[in-house]
Amino acid sequence: MTEQRVVLIDGVAGYWGGRVAEHLLGNPELHVIGLDTEPPGQGSGIDFIQADMRNPLLVELLREEKVHTYAHLAFKESARPSESAFEFNVMGTMKVLSACAEAGVKHVVLMSSTLLYGAQPGNSAFLREDHPLNAKRNFGTLRDLLEIENFIAGFRSQSPDVKLTILRFAHILGPTVDSPLARFLRDDASPML
Question: Is 68 domain-assigned?
Fold first, then answer.
């Protein structure tokens, strides 16, 4: 029998972390560990560690559990409809990446946003991954995301053994999504076509 690959998901009590964990739990080749400051919903069936991802003992945890893949999905939803759906923690992301490099984690998955490309008149309908990030820096969430992206550029050159996957989400809508944009569009006073 082959050894299971260990995947650690932070933010497992949140929407995206919980959804990813739920999906991966069905794969018998993976051992999924959840990390968050609050427990996930009842009956999740995940091995759960209640801790903050910024805890200095994160490196020891990653080594002890022999984590292969770290999914950094611990983001706080913004309450204000005028802002992006998530608040990104720059220092937390830096600490996670540093801990992963120190512990020998092979693959890190980070959540980001398509808002980084900016709403530029010259943008095509579909942008390539290497398209310049042209977002305006004065918006809080975008400023944080751009700072994270700048850190990632340096991290990639200093830690070439760590494979980084960046998921740049667009605004997501659906019947089960609770985001500022979804709440805005559900409001009786929202504009309609």
Answer: yes
Domain with 45 in it: what CATH number? 3.40.50.720
What distances in angstroms separate CA 42 from CA 9, 13, 18, 99, 175, one per listed residue? 17, 10, 11, 29, 21
Taking each helix axis as running N to C, give the angle between helix 90-103 and helix 140-158, from 0 to 180 degrees, rounded to the nearest 10: 20
pLDDT for 81 beyond 50: no
Q: How far apart are CA 26 and CA 36, in angstroms?
A: 21
| 30 lies in some domain | yes
193 within domain boundaries: no
Count: domains in the chain: 1
CB of 99 within 8 A of CB of 159? no
Cβ pair 6, 60 in contact under 8 A: no
Provide the domain limits for residue 134: 5-186
pLDDT digits (tens, 9 = 90+) for 11-57: 999 888 998 999 999 999 999 999 999 998 776 778 999 998 888 89
Identify the band that residue 83 occupies on the pLDDT scale cut at 50, 70 and 90.
very low
Distance CA 117, CA 8 (A): 29
Decide: residue 57, CB within 10 A, 0-12 exposed, 13-18 middle, 19+ buried: exposed
